[in-house]
Amino acid sequence: MTDLFGKQEKKPPHYAGHRQRLRDRFVGAGAGALQDYELLELLLFMAIPRRDVKELAKTLLSTFGSLPELMSASHHELTQIDGISENVATAIKTVTAIAERMMKQELMQKPILNNWTRLMDYCHMTMAHEKKEHFRILFMNKKNELIADEIQGSGTVDHTPAYPREIMKRSLELGATALILMHNHPSGDPKPSQADIDMTNAIIAAAKPFEITIHDHIVIARNGYTSFRNEGLI
């Protein structure tokens, strides 16, 4: 096709119309009208402006298995996928970080025991798909308001150390009077091990002289979570 001056007009790329239609569906009907790979396409549009990204979005989902697994993947794991540059990986991890921070800010300085569903959603997002075990502590004040959320240690695929003395030291530094202990099981099974139970009892014993309450110990996994208190283990 030529213009009025006889110059060859550049045809728009074949994916331009698809991008606009997908954006229109998202704006008009919301995220519920889009499949997972289509939502991922919208994100990739911004990071990869001049390329058809539908197949790349599908490849990412098939490689990692699901959106949660994908968004929890490390920067290095993402860049191993053909077509995922450092910038694209950073864009994906930024979305994950924003979502986690938003959920955390909704919990901070609020009575955490009254926001249990949100708490479990937050912990599942941040821990369920980790490849290594992490031991996390939620520190609370006398009103059971969340004052700090910290990872105290990281270990291997099936073990992470927890040191009662260090946990008490940090609790006193923060002025915490109650704790919720958490760790993840990368295996996907949230059932506590005997080592988990023994570790919890040691922390409870260490906390008693300081009148620090251990409200619960939660084991997070891809397939759900287990509450020590609900299981009668605390």
What labels describe this entry?
single chain, five-stranded mixed beta sheet, 5 strands, Cytidine Deaminase, domain 2, 46% helix, DNA polymerase, domain 1, alpha+beta, elongated, 9 helices, 234 residues
Distance between the termini: 76 Å
Radius of gyration: 23 Å
Tally of helical runs: 9
CATH topology of the largest domain: Cytidine Deaminase, domain 2
Tally of extended strands?
5
Helix content: 40-55%
Poorly predicted ranges (pLDDT <50, ≥5 residues)? none
Kindly estimate the percentage of residues that lie in beta strands according to DSSP.
15-25%
Q: What order do the strands of the largest sheet run in, or round the barrel if closed?
A: 2-1-3-4-5
Count the domains.
Answer: 2
What global shape is seen?
A: elongated
The CATH architecture name of the largest domain reads: 3-Layer(aba) Sandwich
For this structure, what is the CATH class of the largest domain? Alpha Beta
Largest sheet: 5 strands, mixed
List SSEs in N-to-C order.
Answer: HHHHHHHEEHEHEE
Overview of the structural elements:
The relative contact order is 0.08. The longest helix is centred in the middle third of the chain and has 22 residues, at 86-107. Strand 1 (134-140) and strand 2 (146-154) form a beta hairpin. The mean pLDDT is 86. The protein has helices spanning 15-29, 36-47, 54-64, 67-72, 75-79, 86-107, 116-127, 164-174, 194-207, and strands at residues 134-140, 146-154, 178-184, 213-221, 224-227. The chain has 234 residues and is of the alpha+beta class. The chain has two domains: 15-101, Orthogonal Bundle (DNA polymerase, domain 1); 109-227, Cytidine Deaminase, domain 2 (3-Layer(aba) Sandwich).
